[in-house]
Specification:
Helix content: 10-25%
Number of domains: 2
Number of strands: 11
Strand content: 25-35%
Distance between the termini: 117 Å
Structural class: alpha+beta
Radius of gyration: 35 Å
Shape: elongated
Strand order of the largest sheet: 5-8-7-6-9
Order of helices and strands: HEEHEEHEEEEHEEE
């Protein structure tokens, strides 16, 4: 009787082992996961390391980098322009460039032999300098590439024979090209107390600034970064008493500071 029980137990153990082996073999032979297909890439011209604004581009500053082909169409690719890396050597950085970003022609100035300031000016614009101080430039916190409003303050005679002052914004949303001879922040400098600010202005605005300098004191009001692209609005407080006198060919006329 004992022998029979032992035989049944042995058969059960052998059957269990065989079942386990079969189950393990079945799992091992299951279909493998499909291999992930590599995304197609294209070589895109990129910035090899950080390049400050105004720096001259050298060959070591540019590199060809693999980029997802689906998003490479808007950049410079080696397939479309194999000589692009050599073409941009000697150009200047219109804005700061950062390592790894694709090169965009709009951020480079290929004006060899020209001064940098004339190269970064947009078509039709002029660079004009005005005198500033800490009190007329937001305490020195206005930096190159900030946008400002230009305020004219003038002394005038009052009706009772005394003197008073009148101020009005004569230009809105003007880009600051440089403070003194600095065109960008240096070494993380956050305050520049300069004596001259160079502004980007249209020819008409440049004329207005030149006249305004002779009429009184010019101050710069720093605009918020969120307002850089805001269209200027007319000042409701402007009146004829704040107009500038313009003399052309001996004929005087009034021009609003706006």
């Amino acid at each position: 009787m004992k022998f029979g029980r032992i035989a049944v137990l042995a058969v059960a153990l052998v059957a269990g082992g065989i079942a386990a082996l079969l189950a393990g073999g079945f799992r091992h032979k299951s279909a493998p996961a499909p291999a992930r297909q590599a995304a197609a890439t294209a070589e895109v011209l990129t910035v090899a390391h950080n390049v400050p604004m105004g720096a001259v581009i050298q060959a070591k500053d540019l590199a060809w980098t693999d980029w997802p082909k689906s998003g490479a169409g808007e950049f410079i690719t080696r397939a479309a322009d194999p000589a692009a890396r050599q073409h941009y050597v000697g150009a200047r950085a219109r804005d700061a460039l950062y390592a790894g970003e694709p090169v965009r022609p709009a951020k480079l100035v290929t004006a060899k032999g020209s001064g940098f300031l004339s190269a970064i000016l947009e078509k039709g614009m002029r660079a004009i300098a005005i005198d500033i101080s800490a009190t007329t430039s937001a305490g020195g916190f206005i930096l190159p590439n900030d946008h400002v409003d230009v305020i004219l303050t003038r002394r005038r005679q009052s009706a009772n024979g005394g003197q008073n002052y009148a101020s009005s914004i004569i230009l809105h949303n003007v880009r600051v090209l440089a403070i003194d001879q600095n065109i960008a922040e240096k070494n993380g400098q956050k305050v520049v107390v300069g004596r001259t600010a160079t502004l980007a202005a249209t020819p008409a605005d440049a004329e207005l600034l030149t006249r305004a300098r002779q009429q009184g004191t010019l101050s710069l009001a720093l605009r918020s970064l969120a307002d850089f692209n805001t269209k200027p609005t007319a000042d409701s407080g402007a009146d004829d008493s704040d107009a500038l006198t313009v003399v052309r060919f001996g004929v005087a006329s009034q021009a609003s500071p706006q």
